[in-house]
Design a protein that fits this description.
The relative contact order is 0.09. Strands 18-17-14-19-20-21 form a six-stranded mixed β-sheet, with helices on both faces. It has a five-stranded antiparallel β-sheet with strand order 1-10-9-5-6. It has a three-stranded antiparallel β-sheet with strand order 2-4-7, with no helix packed on it. The protein is α/β, with parallel strands linked by helices. The protein has four domains: 49 residues; 105 residues, Immunoglobulins (Immunoglobulin-like, Sandwich); 230 residues, von Willebrand factor, type A domain (Rossmann fold); 33 residues, no CATH class. Keywords: Membrane, Transmembrane, Transmembrane helix.
Length: 448
Amino acid sequence: MKKLFKLFYTDLFLTSRLFALLAGSVVLFLLWFFFPWLGVVPKLFFWGIIVTTFVDLVLLYRIGNAIFAKRHAPERLSNSDDNELGIYIENRYSFTVQAGIIDEIPVQFQRRDVLFKTTLKAGEHKLISYALRPVKRGEYAFGSIRVFVRSPLGLISRRHNFEQAETLPVYPSFLQMRKYELLAISNRLNELGIKKIRRLGQSLEFEQIKNYVPGDDYRNINWKASARQGSLMTNSYTDEKSQQVYCVIDKSRAMKMPFEGLSLLDYAINASLVLSNIALLKEDKAGLITVAEKIGAVLPADKKPTQINKILEILYKEKTRYLEINMEALYSTIRNVLKQRSLVVFFTNYESLPALQRQLPFLKRIARFHLLLVVFFENTELKQVSEQPARDVEGIYIKTIAEKFAYEKKLIMKELAAHGIQAILSTPQNLTINTINKYLELKARQKI
């Protein structure tokens, strides 16, 4: 009995309407003190409030499970994307209610405004949708759903609690991966800024012998097959397949820098996931290597359907380290794991030319055996500072330093090009598009 009473008063809340009426009652009693002719009006008004409150109490508490609510959430959330969630709510009262719904979202979002207000008629049910955008991989713990219900009288509010604690993993941006995958399948990548690259030369990857149709290259006519068939036959060629594409992700302290809530490592991880999926769609083999002060995960290149899930599971757990990258260990791993010429996409970051020069000897050795593509980031904050006009001496110094760092990024590009190393200098938000563009360009030019 004591427990039931405790549940009763902990879930009971007085509304602002009730306080307004009580305040009006106090005013009437004060006026009655100065104007006795008011008679019993203040008392009738006060007892009317009491009776109405009791009726409201009976309306809200006469049914135990009068409200039902449940959260609809996906099995996993996609990092840096808007993830759709929903709350299903059903009114089992015999009258219309005003409902306020609070969903206890994970603490990582640091939001206290996830409150939804709605009106539900008798027997009505609704699905309230909302979106959450995580900016960090890991596990996100959701709490309970709290529904505050008011009857048409609106003097008190009853809270209904629905324990629905669940933990959802936040994976690298698989929603972005699916978007690019659908466009790649339908050959519509150019809609997202993916450039169409003019093919140079012709692939030597034989596909089939087919009937000649006007417009086919007459140089590909297969005269032996034509003689056997009695009609013109031509050789058909396709893009070279089963080429190895390795994404090498630097997770040292250079990748800790934040941009719009995400670290550079998260941008690199999202781009690696999309690039690996595009490579698999192009029937190439995708592999993965992560490195900091020591080698992290090593996944040999493969083109099995399960490969993208293996890459996703590895990238889900990766975190930034606080030490410098061990290039000697990376070079040794690449020489031991990569047994044939491959495209090595190295995601890292350089803020100065000396930072590159420390790693350059190892990069040149890798480029000797493989096609190396170095992807690093443009510092957009410094770029904005360098483009703003200086208003005083201090502003001139700041602008000059910002321009110096921006210029060093260009020097890094020239230094890499001088040693025959492909490079991409990209803003974080355009990293995925620029990386796919470069991959398709290298493939079209048959450099892999």
